C-alpha cells in the first residue's frame, strides 16, 4: 500500500514518525508525499499544549475531509493524543480506523494494514523495542538522534511525564550504531534531542553520560553535533566548557529557563532561582555560546512585579533567541489545580510585551553582525527574494533565524560556504558568498 505521513509537534515526534515509516517500508509498503496518492494516512500527533491538541484535531479532521471524497482511505492516528486520551477518541473520530499510543509503534504495520482494509485497530498499552531503522524526512545533510524518552522533572505545568512516562535513556551502543548509519547516509549535522538531554545515562548507569556520548559522536565524521534541551540545573561548568571548546560541537545551547522570578520558578517546580539563572546566563554568554531559551508568561499567581522582573531580565540579558509562550492550562497537571489563574487577556497582553522585547534584542544583534564573516550551510532557495538560504552553527533548524545570501557561482545543498554579512532582513541575516 501507499502510505502518507503527517508528523506534528517536536523533533522527537519526527524521529518516531521516521522509525514507523521504516517499519512500514520493511513490510513492503511505499511512502508517498501526499494524501491524494495515499491508501492510508498516518497522523502522528502532539498533545503537549492546548494549541498542539487543537492542531492535531484540525489535522485529523482535514484528512477525514479527504476520506469523505475517498471512503476507501484509511486513517491511523498515533502519538501523544491517543496516549493522553485513551479510549476517548474512538467516538469523537469515527472516521479514524486505528489509534496507537507512543509505546505501540511496533504495531504500526498491523494498524496500517487493518486501516487499508477498512477495519479497526486500537492499541495504547505497549513498550516498543528499540529500532534504528529510519526513513529520513529532514534534508539529507542533517538528522535528529533521540537519546532518551519521557521525563522525570515533574514541572507543575507540564503533561509530558503523564503522557510519555518517566525518563528512559536509550542504550549507548544502540545510539552509536544509529549514528553510524546516519553518517553513512551523508548526514553532516547530528542534533541530539530528548525532553532533557542533560540527564542522559543517569537512570541506567547512575552517571551523567551526555558528554562522553557527544564526544564520541563528534568523532564519527559529523561536521556538527548540536545539543538541544539542556535543563538549567544540570548545566554545570564542565558542560559549558565542553560545548565551548570541543571540536565539532556547535557553540549553541537550548536551555529552557521558563522564568526569572524565584517565586514563580518555585511554583513551577523548576529547581532554580533568580540568582542561579542570572549566573548561568552570564557563564554561557562569557563562554561565547549562543543561547536559546523559552519563557512562560502568565503562570498562575504571577504578579505584576514578577512579570516586570522578567521583562527587565529579557532586555538586560540579551539572550540570542527566546520563545515566549503564554501559560496554557493543562488538565491533570498540578498547575491546573492551583489558585490565582490569570485572565486570558492578561496572559495575552504580557506575552505580547515580552515577545516585543525579545524581538528588539534579536534585531539589534542581527544589525550588529554587518561586516562579519560566517560559515553557512546552504539548505535551500528563497524564490521570492531570489537568494539562497542557510544556517550557521549558531542557528538550529526551524526555530531560529536564517542567513539569506547570494552567490555568483553555484552552491550545493549541505555544503558550507563563507558568507560576508551585509545587513539583515528582520531577524534574518543577509549576505554575499565570499
UniProtKB/TrEMBL annotation:
Its cofactor is [4Fe-4S] cluster. It is found in: Cytoplasm. Residues 1-117 form the MTTase N-terminal domain. Binds 2 [4Fe-4S] clusters. One cluster is coordinated with 3 cysteines and an exchangeable S-adenosyl-L-methionine. Its EC number is 2.8.4.4. Keywords: 4Fe-4S, Cytoplasm, Iron, Iron-sulfur, Metal-binding, Ribonucleoprotein, Ribosomal protein, S-adenosyl-L-methionine, Transferase. It catalyses: L-aspartate(89)-[ribosomal protein uS12]-hydrogen + (sulfur carrier)-SH + AH2 + 2 S-adenosyl-L-methionine = 3-methylsulfanyl-L-aspartate(89)-[ribosomal protein uS12]-hydrogen + (sulfur carrier)-H + 5'-deoxyadenosine + L-methionine + A + S-adenosyl-L-homocysteine + 2 H(+). [4Fe-4S] cluster 1 binds at residues 10, 46, 80. It is an enzyme of class 2 (transferase). Its main location: cytoplasm. HAMAP family: MTTase_RimO. Catalyzes the methylthiolation of an aspartic acid residue of ribosomal protein uS12. This is Ribosomal protein uS12 methylthiotransferase RimO. It comes from Candidatus Limadaptatus stercoripullorum.
